[in-house]
Amino acid sequence: MKKTIIFIMLFALLFTTGCSFTAVKKVEKKEEKQESKKKEEKQENEKKDENNKEDKSQNKTPNVGAFNGDKAIGFSLKTLADGKEINLNEYLGKKPIIIKFFASWCGPCRHEIPELKKINDEYEKKGLKVLAVNLTNGDKLENVKALIAENKVKFPVLLDESGKVAISYSIRSIPVNIFIDKNGIIKNRSEGMLTFDSYKKFTDMIMK
Questions:
Q1: Long-range pairs, 84-93, Cβ under 8 A, ≥24
Q2: What distance lies between CA 34 and its chain's CA centroid?
Q3: Full residue range of the structural domain in which residue 171 is found
Q4: CA dihedral 108, 111, 117, 122 (to 10 degrees)
Q5: Which CATH number covers residue 87?
Q6: Does the N terminus or the C terminus of the chain have fewer Cβ atoms within 10 A?
């Protein structure tokens, strides 16, 4: 009789423990599913955030300015050759462009002229537009004419007589060369003298 009672008690204990163990397992599995679902939701939200950031980045309109990544500022100036006006907007967004700011009294500027002439000769047929902007309000016109004639320059030389274009492009020292791609975006702003190799490197960048 005692053995029977003990057996019944052990059986009941095992049954209860088994039920408790099964219940714990069910709770654990439920928690694992919830945790897994949370992770999936978190990953999905992170992916959406990344996609939104990419979309915003792609749709972002560049600022109009004078530095790398900016949309180049439009201007209209008279040419040294015949006094006709050239409007930069005629070329922005259509052609790759180099704008060189210079003065005849600037040694490094003078040194760059023949190098830029070589670049113009090589790339003009490929669609490049070169414009030289003279800081005429601080220069002598006869000296500018002599420099251009001496180097047999073919690209347009524009006269910034008021200095407004130089101010809009934040020109504080010269030479400055602005390399603009065919979308009208400034890809490189170089302050200081450039060699032919440097000109070629930055020109290839905007010809793509």
A1: 86/131, 86/156, 86/158, 88/131, 91/129, 92/180, 92/184, 93/182, 93/183, 93/184
A2: 44
A3: 64-207
A4: -90
A5: 3.40.30.10
A6: N
Are 50 and 150 contained in the same domain? no
* Whole-number Å distance between alpha carbons of 65 and 70: 5
Asked if residue 172 and residue 88 are part of one domain, the reply reads yes
The CB density around residue 159, as the number of other CB atoms within 10 Å, is 19
Burial (CB < 10 A; 0-12, 13-18, 19+), residue 191, is middle
Q: How many domains does the chain have?
A: 2
How does pLDDT run across 147-172, given as a tens digit for each residue? 999 999 999 999 999 999 999 999 99
Same domain for 82 and 158, yes or no, is yes
Query: In this structure, are 28 and 79 located in the same domain?
Result: no
pLDDT-based confidence at residue 91 (cuts at 50, 70, 90) = very high
Angle between helices 107-123 and 196-207 (to 10 degrees): 50
Sequential DSSP letters for 127-149: T-EEEEEE-GGGS-HHHHHHHHH
Cβ neighbours of 116 (radius 10 Å): 24
Helix (H) or strand (E) holding 191: strand 186-191
pTM of the model: 0.72
